[in-house]
């Protein structure tokens, strides 16, 4: 997939040897942030050293340059189903899963209700129309980026984040790995 040349927020972080680009959604409340390590850089090094504080510093408006850029990005779709019972219990939501302990009286007149299972399904898809998230990879095209300039060509492993811009809340994150 190729976005035509347009202006994007971009920065090269020399410490992490990583390019960062922000792709705004049409409503501009959300952005997809892509962190593309240099080809010689092991993406797990960037991943393991990335903190929320670093992410915020790298992606704040004052750090980014609004430049004309051609963005080349493979189409992909990531989806997953997660059993959240152990996660929620680890976070302290134990009573909800125990009959006689759970209190759902604000939601139902039934008594003695409890949760038996909590499933979370997430989907992130990037295609010609942009990105869609409801949050495994399907590679449909490969690009030769040698002739494009200036270019952000995500043709190898990268990290992506979908952010609510006003609150800096990360809604989704993932890693795209080429086979």
Automatic annotation (TrEMBL):
One example GO MF annotation: serine-type endopeptidase inhibitor activity
Gene3D superfamilies: Alpha-1-antitrypsin, domain 1, Antithrombin, subunit I, domain 2
Spans traversing the lipid bilayer: none
Domain Serpin: 1-179
Highest taxon above the source species: Eukaryota
GO CC field: cytoplasm; extracellular space
Pfam families attached to this UniProt entry: Serpin
Family, as annotated: Belongs to the serpin family.
Protein name according to UniProt: Serpin domain-containing protein
Lineage: Eukaryota, Metazoa, Chordata, Craniata, Vertebrata
